[in-house]
Amino acid sequence: MLERLLDAIPPVRGKRGRPRRRPEKLHADKGYRSRKNQRVLRARRIKSRIARPGIESSERLGRHRWVVERTIAWTNQMRRLIIRYERRDDIYDGLHRLGCALICFNFLKHMF
Question: Is position 84 within any domain?
Fold first, then answer.
């Protein structure tokens, strides 16, 4: 799954020049620690920061992961998105995008 996820990343626009097709660094928890995943990351020249089981605690990675977990928690406040009731992908995708737009709107509303 990690390989398919990395292949699905769209180009990252940034500074002038050709857009990047891959991230520079990957943060993951201990579940992603395998030789196959390490080979996949090394072949794509992506630095990995994956906790080693029995050696490192996952608390150090928590500093970067809280943004993702917070956003997932905000998405779970939309009850319709917690459990997928829709059979059609396009309807579920539309509801998910609407939920993300509402999250962004509320976030921006509190900033200003």
Answer: yes
With contact defined as beta carbons under 8 Å apart, do 58 and 24 qualify? Answer: no
Which residues span the domain enclosing 31?
2-50
* Confidence at residue 98, expressed as pLDDT on a 0 to 100 scale: 92
Q: Count structural domains, the chain.
A: 2
Residue 26, domain member (yes or no): yes
Check residue 50 and report its DSSP letter: E
CA atoms within 13 A of residue 70's CA, in its CB half-sphere: 9
Residue 56: predicted pLDDT: 62
Q: Give buried/exposed letters for 57-90 (b at 16+ CB in 10 A, else e).
A: eeeebeeeeeeeeeeeebeeeeeebeeeeeeeee
Per-residue pLDDT reduced to its tens digit, 69-93: 788 888 888 888 788 888 888 988 9
